[in-house]
Specification:
single chain; alpha/beta; about 30% helix
């Protein structure tokens, strides 16, 4: 979906260093110092407008969250959510997910969330999918031993591809739902896309996968 450009976004992001980390590479290996409390760290890659990450932070005060989003015109809305809620356990990073290993040490992240990622439907673009094997290797490099990925999408093709990619990489499939909103799963925090697609009658797919003990 094309987003409206907001030329003032970068300036606003810079005005809130308490929420938007300006030089994340400087905190590699010491993210616990960024938050008020040393707690498990969960990150969302492609945080969009921030409804999910702010909702999770509000619902789980004993967990620290970082929302990662490349488009400044989008993440500035996530910033508004966090400012309004005054959440001490969530930060934002306006960076490219390809560079995760430059921001986090091995074992520094407890969980990765991937919500409604770009499906990149053409076969020649498979390497750009956030569930492609090179991304899975990057997540493994920063996650704790037996760390987890939680993944949601409305795109059946991407979901099927991702299940295969997870399996071929050797990840353990802990939970799979082919219709999340009709399942007995509790505590689901919806994203903006999720609400939009669900209201259209689209099925929501969700899975939880875990890296095997090294």
């Amino acid at each position: 979906m094309r987003q409206r450009n907001k030329p003032w976004a970068k300036e606003k992001l810079a005005e809130y260093p308490q929420y938007v980390i300006q030089s994340p590479d400087q905190w590699k290996g010491k993210w616990h110092e960024v938050f008020d409390k040393k707690q498990p760290l969960h990150i969302e890659i492609g945080t969009g407008k921030g409804r999910f990450i702010s909702g999770m932070a509000k619902a789980n005060p004993t967990i620290n969250y970082i929302g990662i989003e490349l488009q400044d015109s989008v993440i500035v809305t996530a910033l508004d959510h966090i400012i309004e809620a005054e959440l001490p356990n969530v930060k934002l990073m306006n960076v490219n997910a390809n560079d995760l290993h430059t921001f986090f040490e091995k074992g520094e992240v407890d969980r990765v969330y991937l919500n409604f990622s770009d499906p990149w439907p053409k076969s020649r673009h498979a390497k750009r999918r956030l569930t492609y094997k090179t991304f899975l290797k990057t997540y493994e490099e920063i996650l704790v031993d037996q760390g987890e990925i939680h993944f949601k999408t409305d795109n059946q093709g991407l979901f099927e591809y991702s299940l295969t990619s997870f399996s071929e990489y050797g990840l353990l499939l802990k939970y799979v739902s082919l219709d999340l909103h009709k399942s007995n799963f509790e505590g689901n925090i919806m994203t903006e896309y999720e609400e939009k697609f669900s209201n259209k009658g689209n099925r929501i797919y969700r899975c939880e996968v875990q890296y095997r003990k090294s």
